[in-house]
Every structure is written in C-alpha cells, then in structure tokens.
Amino acid sequence: MGTIATAIAAILLSNPALTMPQGPPHGRGPGGLGLHGGPMGRGLGMMARGMSAEEHGNIHALLSAHETIERTVEEIPGGVLTRTVTSDPALVDVLREHVRQMSARLDRGRPVRMWDPVFRDVFAHADAITMAWEEIEGGIAVSETSDDPEVVPLIRAHAKTVNAFVAGGFEEARPPWAGRGMGERQP
C-alpha cells in the first residue's frame, strides 16, 4: 500500500496541471499569492503554486479510508445538500477540515484538478456558488447552491464525482492517464 500511495503522491506533485491554479483568479481573494503571501512559484516549491501539504495530506487520508466514509446527496432547489460521515473517529476532523479547505479555495478562485472538466467548470463559476456547512455527529453537512440555473447541474455533477471518490478511493480519484489498478496504464 505504501508504494501505491507514494506513486500517486509522485504523480500529483510532479504534474503542474494538478497543482497549479489555471487561469486568472475569480476576483475573490488574493489571487496570485502563494504560501506566506508571496508571489506564487518564487522559491517556495510546487506547494506554493497549488495545494498545501496539509490539503494533500487530508485528501490522501480521506481516499485511503474511503471505506469508513458514508455520504448522501439530496438534490435541493439550486443545488445539493450532502451529509458525509465516517465511522473512524480519527478521521472526523480531517473530513471537516477538508470541506473548509475546499470552500476557501472556491472563495479565493484557487482551483484544483483543472484537468477534470467537472472541477474546471465548478471553479469557473465559483462566484455563482454558495457553500454553507454544519458539523454533524461523525462528520459534516454541506449545502452547495447557486441562483444561476446553468450552474446548478455543475454543482450536482461535482457531488456525483465526490460520491465516486468516496465509493472507490484512489481508484476513482486517479487521473485518467494514470490507469486503473496496480500501476497498469490503460487507454
């Protein structure tokens, strides 16, 4: 398992398309600032241009323990209401922090997975999306909505994609060019 996780981390960290924000910020925050408030890519390494080590670590922990996570998605007017819980008490805070981190990235126009059309479309419409969350026993409930009827299907597609991550862990989250299964490259 450690070898697979190391390989996935190497793929994520070595590919700028996975970690670098693409395009201009959406006008919702500091934009081109990296860690410590400095310009992105100025001697701070790949993490300054993309996700922090903590963000990567939380995603890795959630994907690794996906079998302990249960998630429901309810379509509501304008979007979705999700409830995500884990049976692993050590993962509850990680799950909650991940939601806060990704919400902050949406607010700041700091996209992730820009190679993935679902994530690219959601971040392209970040200004039209409202997220609110509430801690619940064992996890977090999140409403993600928009008043823009063209954005609502994007929110719902994102929820389905995250459900696939919960169901399949790394296998579902891996980029399409990385193949499916124990290091095999498939078309």
Automatic annotation (TrEMBL):
<protein>
    <submittedName>
        <fullName>Uncharacterized protein</fullName>
    </submittedName>
</protein>
